[in-house]
Amino acid sequence: MNDPEAPKTDDTPTASKKAPVSSQVIAAESVQAEEVPTIPMDSLQTLSTLQPEVSVRPVTSTSAVPEPLVVQPAEYRRGIGEWLRIWRDGLRPGYLRFAILPLLLGSALAWLSTISRSHPRGEFHPQRFLAALIAVCLLQLGANLINDYYDYVGGVDTSNPLGPGGLIQQGQIKPARVLALGLFFLIIGAFVGALVAFYGGPMAFIFGAVGLVGAYFYSAPPRALSSLTLGEVVSFWIFGPLLTLGAYIIQLGRIDSLPLICGISLGLLFSGVLYINDMRDMESDVQAHKYTLASLLGVRTNRAICTLLLLAAYVPILYLGLPSHGPHLVLITLWTLPGLVAILIALYRTTTPASLHVTLRQAFKLATLFTILLIIALTISTYWHWLPSFSLPGLPYVL
What we know:
Layout: H1 41-50, E1 53-54, E2 70-71, H2 80-91, H3 97-112, H4 126-153, H5 175-197, H6 202-217, H7 231-252, H8 257-280, H9 282-287, H10 293-296, H11 299-312, H12 315-321, H13 337-349, H14 353-386
Antiparallel strand pairs: 1-2
């Protein structure tokens, strides 16, 4: 029998033997048990209770209210500041520029048309402007919430972290509350809009009704306009000629060609901005069977259409500023062309949603600067036209 105490023999060949490696065992100093830092069990249980529980679930369309990805413990309560931030992100105040900028332009054109030598200050009704501003902002916010609700119902943007809204998709607000607040905004906005429409006459009521229908049925069933490849058409008319002419009518009670031309320019520009938004979201739209124009066409065609929309926005400006009798200062809006070139370069160099999201933000800034420059140019041109003529010795009249 083998003796367990006997030394083991090494059967490996001599050539394959390795040189012995010196080793040294380091022993730790003895520590008394009471010197080791410990945490009471009650504290460990408290820490475990306060940690959020991570819930892993598939991001798919479901009829039930989704559970939040991070479940806060029972002891956690959101403060007022956090609730305001959540609702602010869901309301998407950045998209209010779609409604505010055309309203500013139409109101400015109405005021400038009343300026003369005898009335250098012109005529402006601030109460009508403020009422119209409140109405269009409420309608836009209501449309954003209703879009968030019906996107949830249709399974849109459930897996798109860059998509707008997401109050329901992220499990933060119940769907019924989002829909109720959206309808409340639409009702109050329609009521305020009806009050201010009395100053504009029947055309103002017609424009207001079209805007209300577009705000609701842009996302609402049975056939949402945005899902019928009509999103760009609706945005062109509402955020272009309709709002610009509507603001003009509320101030003066009549229609003119200049706000129509300027409204067409803004409508084309905002349609291009919305097209970039649809290009960013087209992957999630295809998964949810939401048929936007961008989701039906290829990448090259989408780029070409978006380029045409953005470039076409400058055609009405050239039509106004190039003739000898026109307001040449409106051509300062061409200063935004370098920004447009940068947007188009980014559009042709990438197709990822994250990059298109950055391009979308740049397009928003471009539309804002374009509108501001147009208002400034029209204001200077109007006052320049009515400045008293003067001459210098030996020279003809300057103006």
